[in-house]
Amino acid sequence: MNRFSWFNATSLTLGFAFLYLPMVILVIYSFNESKLVTVWAGFSTRWYGELLQNDAFLDAAWVTLRVAVFSSTLATVLGTMAAYVLVRAGRFPGRTLFSGMIYAPLVMPEVITGLSLLLLFIGIGLDRGILTIVLAHTTFSMCYVSVVVSSRLVSFDRSLEEAALDLGATPFDAFRLVTLPIIAPAVISGWLLAFTLSLDDLVIASFTSGPSSTTLPIKIFSAVRLGVSPEINALSTILIGIVTIGVITASLVSKRAVIRRQREEQAAFQT
Amino acid sequence: MNARRLILIAVPYMWLLALFLVPFLIVLKISLSDTALSIPPYTPTLDLSQGWEGLKAFWAELDFENFIFLTEDDLYWKAYLSSLKIAALSTCITLLVGYPIAYGMARADESWRPTLLMLVILPFWTSFLIRVYAWIGILSGEGYLNQFLMSLGIIGEPLTILNTNTAVYIGIVYTYLPFMILPIYATLEKMDDSLLEAAEDLGCSRISAFWLVTVPLSKSGIIAGCFLVFIPTIGEFVIPSLLGGSQTLMIGKVLWEEFFSNRDWPVASAVAVILLLILVIPIILFQRNEQKQREAEG
């Protein structure tokens, strides 16, 4: 461990300070009394109160949440199916095109995805609203889900599935009772990924939303263009808080699951 | 082929065809259309409802006027070049900032590594928009950075950083840093320490052992990290529009303005088509690197 020198300690300290200081400053100044964001005038939760009074933000938050829940759930179903097709379905006509369409949206610039979907919706005469945002978000996040799930499916021992089939399970039962529980962690993290992607998205939502379906990122973006505001600081702090709690909880839960599995394995060996 | 398998393949396939491939073909089609002052603001030159006749008329009238327009107005090729330059330079800076962090993480005590890893991943889950927004307050004229530097007496006058290209570079390095750190850390963590000991036993100094052993072994991580920063940065919209100024030219922003402000759909579509053509090369190189890495791992 002699290789961990002062150099490494310095680069880690500076690196993590760079990653976290901007957000820490944002959180601290969200409790600033003053309307002038950069001048500290004492501790206050005033801006949180004003935020809760702001109907425009609350409406946008509600739209965003509904879009995220619908699109991530739909994306998880479609993405898991796509992963299954990629890993298990073998050869079929148009397979190369299929895997290309799974990977392309991951590297496609958001402005192009947004523009192309908007032109499609206008072309088929679909009014822009929550539905169009859900369709757009589902399309790009199902690709992320299928990448996450297929990496789990690749490392999965297929003989377990075959055993179930040999013992008389129907293919659907084998999937439901054997495969799904094993790939469940990947499916859940795929859903979480799709959910956050949908919550965060500004560009694609701007192209595909209508006047009555403004999402939170669109609202934040138009407010932020005018400069820093204490209300946005408060809103950011709430969002950062939710994410932090979520990520820490998820990592603790998965850590506990690993420890439990290790214990069970040890117990199984001892008997 | 049984019915269940057919449904399993058909549902995601149809979805992606309808909502990914077809929209892109529409962009291609509109990029070849003529600009018009109407709603929708273009005249299609391809009319499929007329069948073969429509297709023939399309071939007869096919011109690339929107693409020619892009080459004539120097705004566009300047925007493409400046996007490439900003993406390339910020990728280099991100590598210089990210490599020491990934190296420090891989050399840290093993019990610390999961926590450090989580600290790198956590910002990735936090809203991109908020992370960019955080810098506005820091970099603005009366912002925290200027207050801090002036209180130390380092500068007498506030620095102008916000709404310049410098702010754009800072924003890109900040938001894309985790994408650089993670693949490099993944390769460094797998590295066998005894290789460094062997190099030192054979008379290598620490610094030359780093350049001759560590860096070549982490090459695939460096390449992956660079592409993961470079590719999305080219089409970036949020960072240049929030942190950049009027002189910041990036093609994502140009496309956005062409569509929303000028309402010139054919030109916006042509901008998108060219942007994709530019991205094809780095994307193929990236895929190749990933494949090589997978093969090396067996």
Outline of the structure:
The complex is a heterodimer of chains A (271) and B (298). Chain A is mainly alpha-helical. In chain A, 79% of the residues lie in helices and 0% in strands.
Number of helices of chain B: 14
Structural class of chain B: mainly alpha
Largest sheet of chain B, described in full?
2 strands, antiparallel
Shape, per Cα inertia axes of chain B: globular
Supply the CATH superfamily name of the largest domain in chain A.
Answer: MetI-like
Please give the share of residues in helix of chain B. Answer: over 70%
Characterization of the model:
The complex is a heterodimer of chains A (271) and B (298). Chain A is built from 11 helices and no strands. Chain A has 271 residues and is an all-alpha fold. Chain B has one domain (73-297): MetI-like (MetI-like fold). Chain B is built from 14 helices and 2 strands, in the order αββααααααααααααα. Chain B has helices spanning 3-31, 52-61, 65-72, 74-107, 113-125, 128-139, 144-151, 165-190, 193-201, 206-217, 219-234, 238-243, 251-260, 265-297; strands at residues 34-35, 42-43. In chain B, helix 4 runs parallel beside helix 8 (165-190). The longest helix of chain B is centred in the N-terminal third of the chain and has 34 residues, at 74-107. At the A-B interface, helix 1, helix 3, helix 4, helix 5 and helix 6 of A face helix 1, helix 4, helix 5, helix 6 and helix 8 of B.
